[in-house]
Amino acid sequence: MDFFKKYQFLPATIAVSVCFCFFKAGANQLPSDKNATKETINLFNNLKRLATKGFMFGHQDDLAYGVGWKYDASLGSAGRSDIKDVTGDYPAVYGWELGRIEIDSPNNLDSVPFDRMKEYIRTGYERGGVITISWHLNNPLTGKTAWNPAEGTIASILPRGSKHELFKTWLDKIAAFMNQLKGTRGEYIPVIFRPYHELNGNWFWWGGKNSTDDEFKRLWIFTVSYLRNEKKIHHLLYAYNTDRYSSREEYLQKYPGDEWVDVIGFDIYQRNSSNEKFIADIDKMLSTLESIAKEKDKIAALTEFGGNLSDNSWWTGTFLKVLSNHHISWALGWRNAGMKRGGEFEYYVPYKGEATAADFKKFYDDERTIFQKDISNEKIYQ
Ligand code: BMA
Q1: Where are the beta strands (DSSP E) in 1-127?
Q2: Which atom of ligand 1 is nearest to the CA of 134?
Q3: Would you place residue 5 in the very low, low, confident or very high pLDDT band (cuts 50, 70, 90)?
Q4: How far does residue 336's CA lie from ligand 1's centre (Å)?
């Protein structure tokens, strides 16, 4: 073969390779679902990008109720929010909860009507915010709550178990809800789904000593593959999340594998521990989480938190102080339930007139915290 013939395709080959390299370098990375929608891929990549700038602030049930109010439509489509009452802005991340959708209840376990929830989700998304959804699902074996760890529950819902068919109908209801979440152009609203959370704790039927590692992994993989492959849902990112943990090994003990997870996180409540102890604990856990996220190329988040709000400067003096040393995507404060039926007064973020409100405003003003106005400018779905 003469020289010309041998190398006649060389220029074309080089050109194609160069283009391909450029394309790869500039291209978005795919989440665990290789068929994810465009908006979901963009969300995944933007969550990673934003974590280098600061962290998003999130709040559970933010638009539905707060301390002393419920479903306040007086602000029109803007909607009330304890965070907005204090800062003039909404959170960047909205947490919602699907517990009891599986038994066809019109309201979730915290009395939020699913119909309203869908509206709130659309509102948050149209403002450019992030949606994350947890699921305190009942125990499918006993019919009792998520906090009923009956023996044999997971085995009963895995393939060939006595409750497997029932369990699939529960996932069908999750799929139906997710499929009803659409933006104004008819596109699906991306959701960070966070099932089986606090998975190393012993209080839920799926977690801790109530499941073997293998059972938990099989439950996780079954759930994701059923929603992804059977129900063809491609607008979800999946969050794997533990409670407090003490080592990397403990964190990863029930990890199902990189192809089934996009976000890794943990939940933490300060309760009665001192600020110093809380800082030390969370600092260690965040460092471990970040190193796992980096190694696995996942998004790190504080999927639920509750602080010490008897300290007026907790937001800047403790929380911001420790989070400033880390790169997580978001931190979600749990719900402002207010006075509950049993007499417990439950809240995790300030409301108008609450003692930490002034300090929270400083926290809001700090350039490292990301709320709604910032996130709207980032156009994270494009
Ligand atoms: C708990 C409390 C409960 C609530 C549950 C599920 O931490 O807030 O009141 O029912 O979460 O949202």
Answers
A1: 55-60, 65-66, 69-70, 93-97
A2: 12
A3: very low
A4: 10
